[in-house]
Amino acid sequence: MAIAEWRQQLVSGEMSARELTDQHLARIAAVEPSLNAYLEVTADRARADADRIDQARSAGEDLPPLAGVPLAIKDNLCTKGVPTTCASRMLAGFVPPYESTVTGRLWDAGAVLLGKTNLDEFAMGGSTETSAFGPTANPWNVDHVPGGSSGGSAAALAAGACMASLGSDTGGSIRQPASFCGVVGLKPTYGRISRYGLVAFASSLDQVGPFSSSVADTAALLQVMAGYDPRDSTSLKVPVPDYSADLEKPIKGLRVGLVRECFEQDGLSAEVKASVLAAAEQLQALGAELVDVSCPRFTDGIATYYVIAPSEASANLARYDGVKYGFRAEDADSLAAMTSRSRAEGFGSEVQRRILIGTYALSAGYVDAYYKKAQQVRTLIRRDFDAAYQTVDVLLTPTAPTTSFRNGAHADDPLAMYLADLLTIPANLAGLPAISVPCGFDSAGLPIGLQLIGNVLEESRLLQVAHQYEQSAQVMATSPQGALIPA
User: Fold this and answer.
1) Among 60, 208, 391, 414, which is most exposed with the fewest C-beta within 10 angstroms?
2) Nearest to 269 by CA among 444, 76, 414
3) pLDDT band with cut points at 50, 70 and 90 for residue 485
4) What is the pTM of this model?
């Protein structure tokens, strides 16, 4: 059900917020044994949230924009009074004393909290297999991964266990699971949504964004989430436009750039390539002009990212030392031993790997050769995008080189796992908005995602193009009947 459709039912009294919430809680109970998408289900809180909305409607009060919408929140966003673990033993049992800005805005807009979703530990991973609390399955095929790091949020939505959800995207962690799970996922412009209360992975790359079942719902969520926050020094102090205003405008005359380097990549699935090019032709049929574009350093993004992101992670995760909060190893005979053991026992292997990479890249004698050089390449990648937007309005690529892979397929090959983010990382390095929209299925019935990348703060145009494609292609309407776990 779309958010606009739900609102009509709520206002008319056709369905109450409590009824909708109970439906989703029942769905969670039915699918969770197979999915493990949720780390915490807040049933009592959800029912109380819904009851307040119903009381407001009965009293004739004006209802906020997301009244009664049941949401799931990635468990690296602080929620006051609700555990926030980052799927790590390090933060098991941690209950934040404050609310993140973005979730606070959602509760002010009337949304209902269903619970907190699973993720790769501290958002480091591309499959939601590195969680300390067990992996999440893909509802299209539970033998496959949902993507990551926001896999729990994407899987819960795809399985009908929430109406929408939140994730964070550092190198593709919203868009890649959106592609793998057949839903819409948006990474906004860096600074468009406050990061206050988001547990930091890589501060110059992290951005919060929504998952939804349609581009229109994405626009409605972004409307509430976006805006300046004085508590976040990276927040942009610019007006928030009406993101739904241009959705129905035709795209005739818009120039869509197909990034040449993305379609010439080794490892790009033939089925993914064919599906995404068919989507491009669909945009052309709607009046858009397709333009061949070169971004020569696009594929340098992954090497650049895996210097910058681990370096920032090394600095950000230094605060978890077993002293003030978080996991603490017992029976250590010195402060140094306690800190060392707490980090060794509290962090999983992938987090430790990235901390070690980052610490090495920042160490004396190497910082110029690695971190500084990576930042220089980052600037060149941004310049490639700037040059491209001189001639096109949006860029088009596959979201991921392949569809969802089997559980454990890359367990012994972290480099193969990292390559799943090859096509999403450059938008993070440049701070650009990007969206993944379902555009088809492979021969095994697994979803394929189309990525559209916009210029800075041009979410409205990005949503317009994505919506026009979505309405024309009707991919989900002609797909297999929902997830393999029956709705």
Assistant:
1) 60
2) 444
3) low
4) 0.96
Q: How far apart are CA 117 and CA 167, in angstroms?
A: 9
pLDDT value of residue 480: 43
Q: In what order do the strands lie in the sheet with 447-454?
A: 38-41, 112-117, 70-74, 164-169, 207-212, 184-187, 434-441, 447-454, 394-398, 255-259, 289-293
The fraction of the chain above a pLDDT of 90, given in percent, is: 92
Active site residue 213: no
Question: Is residue 149 among the annotated active site residues?
Answer: yes
Let me know whether 29 and 173 are in one domain. Answer: yes
Amino acid in position 107: W
| pLDDT recorded at residue 477 | 52
Please report whether residue 147 resides in a domain. yes
Tokens linked to 223? 């409307």
* Two tokens, residue 63: 């209802």
Tell me, yes or no, whether 54 and 115 share the same domain: yes
Q: Is 16 a catalytic residue?
A: no
Return the structure tokens found at 315: 């600095």
Does the pLDDT value for residue 484 go beyond 90?
Answer: no
8 Å CB contact between 184 and 459: no
Q: Label residue 319 exposed, middle or buried (CB < 10 Å: 0-12, 13-18, 19+).
A: exposed
Does an H or E element contain 204, and which? none
- Please write the tens of the pLDDT for every residue from 427-471: 999 999 999 999 999 999 999 999 999 999 999 999 999 999 999
DSSP label at 17?
H
- pLDDT reported for residue 145: 98
Could you tell me the two tokens for 66?
């997301």
Domains: count for the chain: 2
pLDDT over 70 at 375, yes or no:
yes
Question: Residue 48 is encoded by which pair of tokens?
Answer: 């109380």
Contacts of residue 474, defined as CB under 8 A and 6 or more positions apart, other chains included, come to none
User: What angle (nearest 5°) sits at the alpha carbon of residue 56, between those of residues 164 and 96?
Assistant: 50
Decide: 151 and 139 in contact? Cβ < 8 Å: no
Domain of 229, CATH number, reads 3.90.1300.10
Residue 419: per-residue pLDDT: 85
Query: Which candidate in 16, 149, 214, 235 is catalytic?
Result: 149
What range defines the domain where residue 340 resides? 301-374
pLDDT tens digit string along 132-147? 999 999 999 999 999 9
Residue 66: CB atoms within 10 Å? 28
The catalytic residue among 74, 131, 311, 436 is: 74
Query: Which residue in this structure is represented by tokens 């910058």?
Result: 308
- The single residue of 100, 131, 150, 173 carrying the catalytic annotation is 173
SS3 label, residue 110: coil
Q: 311 and 172 share a domain?
A: no
What is the spatial distance between Cα 404 and Cα 32, in angstroms, rounded to a whole number? 20
